[in-house]
């Protein structure tokens, strides 16, 4: 007779075997023809230019994190809106405080300029030649 923990362990073992069997069958069935186009970096059907190991601007990550934070916070508004009439004045005041905190965070991000999409000016290196009195014959 299995205990509850034994059933969970058996479930994990069966799941691991199922995943391993799926990967093994996929390994056997996949095509093994390698050609140069398959090994190139994919850029929307265009010929790749340069290396794919480039530095991305940190602003992309910051904007993505800000979006996730505000998206998760906004999700809390939907259940509250559904049961708003049943909760009363206390829940309304709590949600107003929640929204004020959310707006303060939004204002902080906006003032710091983290939502601006302006691109920094590229710094193109140049060679400085000094004028000399050398003449070429």
How would you describe the overall organization of this protein?
By secondary structure, the chain is mostly helical. The protein has helices spanning 4-29, 58-75, 77-82, 84-87, 89-111.
Summarize the structure.
The chain is mostly helical and 137 residues long. It contains five helices and no strands.
Distance between the termini: 102 Å
Strand runs, count: 0
What is the radius of gyration computed over CA atoms, rounded to a whole number of angstroms?
Answer: 29 Å
Q: Count every helix, treating DSSP H or I runs of 4 or more residues as helices.
A: 5
Shape verdict: flat
Order of helices and strands: HHHHH
Kindly list the characteristics that best describe this protein:
56% helix; mainly alpha; flat; single chain
Compile the SSE list and pairings.
Layout: H1 4-29, H2 58-75, H3 77-82, H4 84-87, H5 89-111
């Amino acid at each position: 007779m299995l205990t509850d923990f034994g059933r969970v362990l058996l479930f994990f073992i069966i799941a691991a075997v199922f995943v391993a069997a799926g990967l093994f069958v996929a390994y056997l069935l996949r095509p093994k023809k390698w050609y140069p186009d398959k090994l190139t970096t994919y850029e929307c059907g265009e010929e790749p230019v340069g290396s794919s190991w480039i530095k991305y601007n940190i602003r992309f990550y910051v904007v993505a994190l800000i979006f996730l934070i505000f998206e998760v916070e906004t999700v809390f508004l939907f259940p509250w809106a559904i049961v708003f009439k049943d909760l009363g004045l206390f829940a309304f005041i709590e949600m107003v405080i929640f929204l004020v905190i959310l707006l303060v965070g939004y204002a902080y991000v906006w003032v710091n300029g983290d939502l601006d999409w302006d691109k920094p000016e590229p710094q193109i290196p140049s060679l400085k030649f000094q004028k000399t009195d050398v003449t070429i014959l």
